[in-house]
Structures are given as structure tokens and as C-alpha cells.
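dude i think i finally got it to work??
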Amino acid sequence: MAESMRPTRLKELVGQEHLVADGEIIKQIIDSKIPVSLILWGPPGSGKTTLARIIAKEIEADFVEISAVTTGIADVKEVLKRARENRRLGIKTLLFVDEIHRFNKAQQDAFLPHVESGLITLIGATTENPSFEVIPPLLSRSRVVVLHPLKNDEIVKILKRASRQLKVTKQVDKKTLDYIAKVSGGDARVALGNLELSLKISGTKKLSPEIVKKATQTKLPSYGKNGDKHFDFISAFIKSLRGSDANAALYYLARMLQAGEDPKFIARRMVIFASEDIGLASSPALNLAISTFLSVERVGMPECSFNLFHCAIVLAGSKKSRTVADAMSKAYKIAKEYSDLPVPLHLRNAPTEMMKKLKYGEDYKWQAGFKHKRGFLPPELQDLDLFK
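look at this
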């Protein structure tokens, strides 16, 4: 579906207004019909391939697409042969290299003379930072263009267009399209794929977020070792520690060890407990739990039993705090809800001159306790407090 829904004209493109609006670089290239070599840097599904195809069509160039993953020397030679024939006929050649960062230095070097001579206009697409993955000579002969993840409302617009073309507008409502957009991660290709799969599952029924969840769910492998008792006893052990009942905790610990439970499994659970249930109330508990795990590995049974019982007694008697666990849970929830927010430019690393020009790391000072005037969170989350 994603391929069939791909825009073919600039006016059909959704998103990337900072590149395609009047006066911006892509619009200028198209209006002038003068080809410019570009490096399109952006996440999957943001429109890199679509943009390259639109540019080629709008400037009336022969579009040649190759992938750095599957292309060899022979393929490149064929492309250059085609470009020479095009030049003889007065036709421009636009070579689009998907995943250009996969080409090694020698392969990237091979394009330089042909870009310089104007035989080809090169547009490379990459999800990786071109400062590190594209050779400097090629970067200096190209313009680096940064694409952003699509916003939810932009994804919804694309989904509505697809629904009209598929003639299923009566099957979908705004709530469902909003949900599909939300779980797409700013990737139009993923969103269209989820819509297509959800429609197949629903048949002629009206789509709902529940159907979409069913279509997009990821099944996690179940874990089992020695049946229900394995889980019942470790559950009772952890709950006893949480309730500060050392007597019960030691009883269940003894029962598990006598039954042949893996002592490393028990030690791992105590390491988790030290942060999840004790946390900031007694941070040294984590050190003890990790030391216990190491002793289990290095000493082994039956002698490491002393270490396990020692640790269990201390964990049971420690003050408890859910601060770490609660803050972590809230952080995961917010991260999932706002999974598309980019890291603010002023917080990004800027080891190259190109990145500094793009305002990476702007106004940041490397000093202890430095508080940036724009804060350390995306603007949408400036009031976030995970510890309330």
C-alpha cells in the first residue's frame, strides 16, 4: 500500500514544510529546475525516497534508484553508462542511492568525479548522521537536508487520503486514524502498513482502535521453567521481602533452594528488588545484592547459601521506597506517549562544523551544574515532573 500511495508531485507531499514551502531549498530546486546533489538525512518513513522521486520528475531528469545494500561495481558502471547516453540526448540523470551510509569510502569516492563533472546529480538517503557516515569530499559537493519524523496530524492526513483511494472511508473514523498515527512513530510507511493489515483483519467491519491493537501487537515469548510452583514461590519470597517479614522470606528461600531452584535466579530477583522496592531509601542495598549475585557465581552451592540468606535478611529489614520504580514507570509512559519528539538541537552533540551550523549544541557550556536557559527536555515536556 505504501508504494501505491506514494505522492508523485510536490503539492501532494505531506510534511517537511521546512524544505518544500515557498523559498525553501527543495522548492527552489524544483522551481529553478537546476539539479543539486543532496544528502537526505532523516528517520524511516519520513519521505526521503518520495522526495527524491518528486525532484527528478519535477526537474525532468531520468531517475535511477539503487540501494547501497545490494548494489555492486557492475551496477554502478551500468548507471554511468546510462548517464552518458542521457547526456548525449540532452537528458539529466538523477541517481538516488538509498542507505548511502552502507557504501564504504572507496565506493563513495567512485561517485566524486561524476558528480563534479555533472554527469550525475547524486541524492543520497541515510538514517545515519552523514557527518560520520559520508566522506567529507562528497559532503562538500552536496547539500545536507534534514527531514523530520512526520507529526501525528500529518500521518492522519496521509491515512485519510489512503482511505479515500481504497474507498473505505465509511470503515474508519477519526479516533481510529488518530490511534494508527500515534503508534506509527512518525513513519508514514508503518502507518499505511498498519492500516492495510487492520483492514484485512476487520474484513467488512468498522475499524476500531481495538482491531488496530490486534493487528499491530507484538507477542512476547512466555517464560516457564518448573511450572506454577516456580512462580508461586518466588512471588511469595519477593512479597515477604516487600512486607519486611524476614521469617517468611527465609522460609520461602529455604523451600526454593531445597527444591533445586537456580540460586542465580533468586539472586537476580534480589538485585531487582534492591532498586524496585528499596531504592532511594537505602541505596547501599543494591551493592549488597550485586555482591550476593557475584558470590553465587563464584562460590556456588551450598556455601553461597550464607550469602543469599544474609542478603535476604538485610533486604527484608531495610526501609522501602517506590520512588525509583514509580519514576521509571512514569518515564516509560511519557516516552511512549511522546515517542516522536526529537532531542532539542541545543542538547545534541556537535563534533562537526556542519552540525554546528545547524545549531547543534547552541549556547551549551561544558561546566559542572550548567543549567541551559532552554532546559533539558523537548518544549512539549518542559513542565514534566516524574517525582510528584
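Confidence is low (pLDDT under 50) at residues 218-227.
im so relieved honestly
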